[in-house]
Cu(I)-responsive transcriptional regulator
Amino acid sequence: MNVGDAAERSGLPAKTIRYYEEIGLIRPARAENGYRDYSGDDIHRLAFLRRARNLGFSIDDCRQLMALYKDRDRASHDVREIAAAHVRAIEEKVRELQSMRATLQTLVRACHGDHRPDCPILDDMAGLTADGEHSKTAN
């Protein structure tokens, strides 16, 4: 099947499928005319990659997971370690986002939101202290 059919069946855009081929994540056969010819197995691998990417795995993680998926002699421990590392990275990102939210909530509460030009939100981004001086951490 062609890339359009593969896109429809896998749920991925054709551009993404071509990119995955370019970086070696998939290798469809080529027909005599040189066009890509995606098999059912290729569609299955593309769906696998779509799911892994939707879970936030990096391209490198996807490459490792795909190799482990193909390896019937794999140890599930190896797969678990990749997933556990990803969970730890997500948890760290959640902590960072919660900290950003708390900071922004504080700044929003400090801003009068009226016609006056003074704005603690912009001052904070510019690294200014309450007295209009640059903070030492901003330099």
